[in-house]
């Protein structure tokens, strides 16, 4: 059932026999490729891990209104072995992040922590073998009963408006957003103002308008004018992923549910995705 | 009102707003014929700052001709418009400031690269004109230096330091951290820098004085001056009367007017004894001048009140829109000595309440002196009149 196996792993000292008791084994030469992307969704403590042959999906939710999913494809890992169709467990994300950075998480070039992540199955802890400069640390993190993630039933056929922007232009807007505003209003329209972010704060209101022909706009596909408001407190955590990303896709479906997909390039130039779903703050009648 | 700022001037405007934000909480906006005035004053009214951007600074400058519009708004909200100074320089191509009469909103529109348009509609309050009354041209001591010189000087002082003392002789300027009282002085570390006259672009000393003022405001002007590369001029006379720091070029003028500490005579003497490098003690004619002691002296009606009870320094901020700059009164040294001789060693000084730090400098709009005076017994008015005619007639 081995999908990928490499024999040149820094942590390949584990015996084959020992490996066989694990339902999931995932190795990374550079643990930062995992920790960076997990940091971007660490706005709540509990993270639901679900692994399939395609890779690892980590889900974090807030208030049943916001869901963040980080996808790390199997190809990102130097080794990704899964012995069941679906392996699911839940861990405390902050603890996992602390472990991944147990060697200090140095960003100096040439210094990296190698990771081998193993899970024996239901009831067992998640075991991390971390190695840097010949020192190996073994961390065992207690796993919890995985919760069922919310299904936002977001499907692309119901998407009314979609834009793809280079993250750079959105980063600036998000760093300047008036945080005294309770909501962020997103206007998407086939006519002016095309794509607008608005805040309504203590000192007045502010609008950020992106024309559809801007060279920051990679795709503009809006069919209908939609004005929706989203709680600023819910959207605030998404800026972490935005900061890492190079492109962002903004989609809104016919119910006003917002999907933000961030394309994140890791240290080795590989691509991962972080996705957010957010419920609108109130029903706006856009009929 | 409709103003358009383009290119590098947007950053200059933003820097000015940031600089003003370190003075007070409100930004006073007043479009005038001679340019857009942005002003701020601190809560104790001991520091006032004003930038005037000439119409030529703008690529379009139209102001309401029918009525005088002026307003104040939270400076934080304006700062938010220019939040990231770094990206501002790279991305903003044009900034338009418009007044929406109907909605009572002042609109800042930033036209950025890639067609991104940022619109900030800010609410404002009507306000009186904020106008400090000062006359820097009448000051005896005038210095001008490149910002770098002053930046390199203040960098030696810790950020926690509140006040610096600047003393001058004919060819030198000393900048020293100000230490509160004697008890502290024995423990405190004193840092003094000596700047030679030839380090300045201009160095003119009429009176070898020593003044103490807040460092914070100087720092905030330095940030502006450094980014624009404009030299800073400094104008002052004597302790207790304001120091004016200013930057000027063809299209803008910035003036920061700061209260200086009224000198305590004992304190002075000690300082001089301790360090022989100090210039001669400053004339002490204004040392007891402050509104509080003036009022208290009148209330308690202690018989012969020393001349020092006159309304000390001129009110710097007038709440009216009178634009005539009344000269900050200063009496000649000679006259001062006469007064001193006349009064001799009056013990009244001992009954005075302790000096407050930067009191009385900007009380113009707070304490109208004339009605106060009319309620007082006529004898005191006489005392006042005989001792400080030039002060009273100024009102």
From TrEMBL, chain A:
Keywords linked to the UniProt accession: DNA damage, DNA repair, Nucleus
Organism: Monopterus albus
Cited function: Component of the 9-1-1 cell-cycle checkpoint response complex that plays a major role in DNA repair. The 9-1-1 complex is recruited to DNA lesion upon damage by the RAD17-replication factor C (RFC) clamp loader complex. Acts then as a sliding clamp platform on DNA for several proteins involved in long-patch base excision repair (LP-BER).
Pfam families: Rad1 (PF02144)
Chain coiled-coil ranges: none
Known partners and oligomeric status: Component of the toroidal 9-1-1 (RAD9-RAD1-HUS1) complex, composed of RAD9A, RAD1 and HUS1. The 9-1-1 complex associates with LIG1, POLB, FEN1, RAD17, HDAC1, RPA1 and RPA2. The 9-1-1 complex associates with the RAD17-RFC complex. RAD1 interacts with POLB, FEN1, HUS1, HUS1B, RAD9A and RAD9B. Interacts with DNAJC7. Interacts with RHNO1; interaction is direct.
Subcellular location: Nucleus
Family under the similarity heading: Belongs to the rad1 family.
Biological process per Gene Ontology, one example term: DNA repair
GO CC aspect terms: checkpoint clamp complex
The protein's name in its UniProt record: Cell cycle checkpoint protein RAD1
Main location: nucleus
UniProt xrefs under Gene3D superfamilies: 3.70.10.10
UniProtKB/TrEMBL annotation, chain B:
Residue ranges with Low complexity bias: 306-315
GO molecular function list: double-stranded DNA 3'-5' DNA exonuclease activity
Function: Component of the 9-1-1 cell-cycle checkpoint response complex that plays a major role in DNA repair. The 9-1-1 complex is recruited to DNA lesion upon damage by the RAD17-replication factor C (RFC) clamp loader complex. Acts then as a sliding clamp platform on DNA for several proteins involved in long-patch base excision repair (LP-BER).
Family: Belongs to the rad9 family.
Annotated spans, Disordered: 267-288, 302-355, 370-395
The organism's place on the tree of life at top rank: Eukaryota
GO cellular component, one term: checkpoint clamp complex
Keywords, sorted A to Z: DNA damage, Exonuclease, Hydrolase, Nuclease, Nucleus, Phosphoprotein
Localization: Nucleus
Reactions it catalyzes: Exonucleolytic cleavage in the 3'- to 5'-direction to yield nucleoside 5'-phosphates
InterPro entries (UniProt xref): DNA_clamp_sf, Rad9, Rad9/Ddc1
Name the UniProt record assigns to this protein: Cell cycle checkpoint control protein
Lineage: Eukaryota, Metazoa, Chordata, Craniata, Vertebrata
Coiled coil: none
Amino acid composition bias (Basic and acidic residues), ranges on this chain: 335-355
Biased composition regions of type Polar residues, renumbered to the chain: 372-385
GO biological process: cellular response to ionizing radiation; DNA repair; DNA replication checkpoint signaling; mitotic intra-S DNA damage checkpoint signaling
Major location (coarse): nucleus
């Amino acid at each position: 059932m081995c999908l990928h196996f490499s024999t040149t792993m820094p942590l390949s000292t584990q015996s084959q026999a020992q490996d066989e008791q694990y339902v999931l084994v995932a190795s990374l030469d550079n643990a930062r490729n995992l920790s960076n992307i997990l940091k971007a969704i660490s706005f709540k403590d509990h993270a639901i891990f679900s692994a399939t042959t395609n890779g690892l999906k980590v889900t974090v939710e807030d208030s049943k209104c916001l869901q963040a999913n980080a996808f790390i494809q199997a190809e990102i890992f130097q080794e990704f072995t899964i012995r069941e169709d679906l392996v699911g467990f839940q861990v405390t994300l902050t603890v996992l992040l602390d472990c991944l950075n147990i060697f200090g998480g140095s960003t100096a070039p040439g210094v990296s922590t190698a990771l081998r992540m193993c899970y024996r199955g239901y009831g067992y802890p998640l075991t991390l073998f971390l190695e840097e400069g010949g020192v190996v640390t073994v961390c065992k993190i207690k796993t919890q009963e995985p919760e069922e993630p919310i299904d936002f039933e977001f499907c692309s056929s119901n998407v009314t408006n979609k834009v793809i922007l280079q993250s750079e232009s959105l980063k600036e807007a998000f760093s300047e957003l008036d945080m005294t505003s309770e909501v962020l209003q997103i206007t998407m329209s086939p006519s002016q103002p095309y794509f607008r972010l608005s805040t309504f704060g203590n000192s007045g209101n502010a609008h950020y308008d992106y024309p559809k022909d801007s060279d920051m706009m990679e795709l503009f596909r809006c069919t209908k004018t939609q004005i929706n408001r989203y709680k600023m407190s819910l959207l605030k955590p998404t800026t972490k992923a935005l900061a890492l990303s190079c492109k962002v896709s903004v989609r809104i479906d016919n119910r006003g549910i917002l999907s933000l997909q961030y394309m994140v390039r890791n240290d080795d130039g590989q691509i991962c995705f972080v996705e957010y779903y957010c419920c609108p703050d109130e029903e706006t009648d856009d009929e | 009102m409709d103003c358009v700022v383009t290119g590098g001037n947007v950053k200059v405007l933003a820097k000015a707003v940031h600089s003003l934000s370190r003075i007070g909480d409100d930004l006073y906006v007043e479009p005038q014929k001679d340019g857009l005035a942005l002003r701020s004053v601190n809560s104790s009214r001991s520091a006032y700052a004003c930038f005037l951007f000439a119409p030529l600074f703008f690529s379009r400058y139209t102001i309401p001709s029918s009525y005088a519009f002026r307003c104040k708004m939270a400076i934080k909200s304006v700062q938010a418009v220019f939040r990231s100074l770094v990206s501002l320089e790279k991305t903003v191509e044009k900034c338009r400031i418009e007044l929406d009469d109907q909605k009572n909103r002042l609109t800042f529109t930033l036209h950025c690269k890639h067609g991104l348009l940022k619109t900030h509609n800010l609410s404002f309050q009507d306000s009186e004109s904020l106008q400090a009354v000062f006359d820097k041209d009448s000051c005896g001591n005038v210095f001008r230096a490149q910002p770098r010189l002053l930046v390199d000087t203040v960098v030696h002082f810790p950020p926690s330091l509140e006040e610096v003392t600047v003393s001058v002789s004919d060819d030198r300027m000393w900048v020293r951290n100000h230490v509160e009282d004697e008890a502290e002085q024995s423990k405190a570390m004193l840092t003094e820098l000596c700047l030679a006259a030839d380090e300045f672009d201009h160095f003119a000393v009429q009176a070898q004085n020593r003044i103490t003022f807040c460092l914070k405001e100087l720092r905030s002007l330095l940030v502006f001056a450094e980014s624009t590369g404009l030299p800073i001029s400094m104008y002052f006379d004597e302790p207790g009367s304001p120091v004016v720091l200013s930057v000027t070029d063809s299209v803008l003028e910035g003036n920061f007017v700061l209260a200086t500490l009224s000198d305590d005579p004992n304190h002075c003497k000690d300082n001089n004894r301790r360090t022989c490098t100090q210039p001669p003690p400053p004339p002490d004619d204004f040392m007891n001048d402050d509104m509080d002691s003036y009022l208290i002296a009148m209330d308690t009606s202690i018989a012969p009140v020393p001349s020092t009870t006159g309304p000390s320094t001129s009110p710097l901020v007038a709440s009216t829109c009178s634009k005539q700059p009344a000269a900050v009164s200063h009496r000649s040294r000679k006259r001062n000595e006469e007064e001193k001789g006349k009064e001799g060693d009056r013990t009244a000084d001992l009954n005075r309440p302790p000096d407050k730090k930067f009191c009385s400098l900007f009380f113009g709009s707070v304490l109208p002196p004339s009605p106060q005076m009319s309620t007082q017994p006529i004898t005191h008015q006489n005392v006042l009149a005989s001792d400080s005619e030039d002060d009273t007639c100024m009102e």
